[in-house]
Amino acid sequence: MTLNMLKAGRTATVKGIYSKDTERRRMVDLGILPGTLIENVMASPLGDPVAYRIRSAVIALRREQAELIEVEEEG
Amino acid sequence: MSHAETAIQCGSCASGCNTAHLAKLGIKTGNWDYVVALAGNPNTGKSTIFNALTGLNQHVGNWAGKTVTRAEGAFTLGGKKFKLVDLPGTYSLLSTSVDEEIARDFVLFGKPDVTVVVADATRLERNLNLVLQILEITDRAVVALNLIDEAGRNNIKVDERSLARDLGVPVVSMAARSGKGVDELLSAIEQVASGEIQARPHRIKYTDDILENAIDTLATQLHGQFEDLPNARWVALRLLEGDESIINAVQTATLGTVRAANVFPPLVQLEAR
Question: What is the pTM of this model?
Fold first, then answer.
């Protein structure tokens, strides 16, 4: 599944990023790497963007960015 | 100049107290002996530290992207005048937003005598990315481990000594809002600026011979073209990575020169307290 499918309050582990060059670099700089735990903290009123907790910081990602991040939900 | 007029009371240290000799000069930044850059992730307290050292009132706010250009101020310490440059917060020196470019160009081409990397002790892991990137391009760095009080409240303990040993540069624990650690930071800045402390920062090693050869070849050529380039190795790596802004700067021979537009943009007007 991709990150945009993760429900509020749930946590997932990053498996990979479907992007390259600058966009990939940006995600890695934000701390999104394979193995990183990401929690869906809450959605904005219109459902996009969504606030995620990534390595202790809350970062908002748009749906189109979240769709590029392959994750596996934690049991 | 008279230090007595501007000295602040400091009861926390018995001897060698720096703030007692600190004169905050606000925006009177002319004729400095040393240039100090303040870099760090967004929202780690750079502007709070800037204000604590310069006596200025640079807008401090709890959101990312507040400092979008540089602010400058000055202070004197031990008879030397320091110009302090507050850079926009950035997660990386490699991405391409305008504020990240300003921060990157200053650290790279502004040749600061000391770069203070402000790190958030409560989110240390994510802050180390930028710390390591800055240590790749300069060995005159100090890590200011800010918000250590908040970390303590969250039961986070940071082993400052081990961190300093692993990074190879001085690490100062701070709570800039309450003034904790300001003396220690000043002392570290002074010692790195004067060369009293010779940092040996941690560098990422590339074990691939082909890559190392390519870096060497490019770095030599870069030195031939750009005499004053302080970080040819770093620039070579960016070229190999395909960083378009750096490729463009090399092709147009503007690396480190015309980029001075970013290094010396108009000053932000600040109100002295």
Answer: 0.80
Residues of B within an 8 Å Cβ radius of A: 91-92, 94-96, 122-123, 125-126, 129, 242
Confidence of residue B93 (pLDDT cuts 50, 70, 90): confident
Output the six-digit token pair for B17. Answer: 């107290």
* ipTM here: 0.80
Q: Are B156 and B127 in contact (CB under 8 A)?
A: no
DSSP states of B153-192: HTT----HHHHHHHHTS-EEE-BGGGTBTHHHHHHHHHHH
Q: Which domain holds residue A11?
A: 3-73
Rounded to whole angstroms, how far apart are CA atoms B66 and A72? 35
For chain A, what is the domain count?
1
How far is it, in rounded angstroms, from Cα B235 to Cα B206? Answer: 15
Q: Are B169 and B201 in contact (CB under 8 A)?
A: yes
The alpha carbons of chain A give a radius of gyration, in whole angstroms, of 11
Test B125 with A55 for CB contact under 8 angstroms.
Answer: yes
Q: What angle do CA B98, A52, B123 make, to 5 degrees?
A: 70
Contact yes or no for B242 and A25 at CB 8 A: no
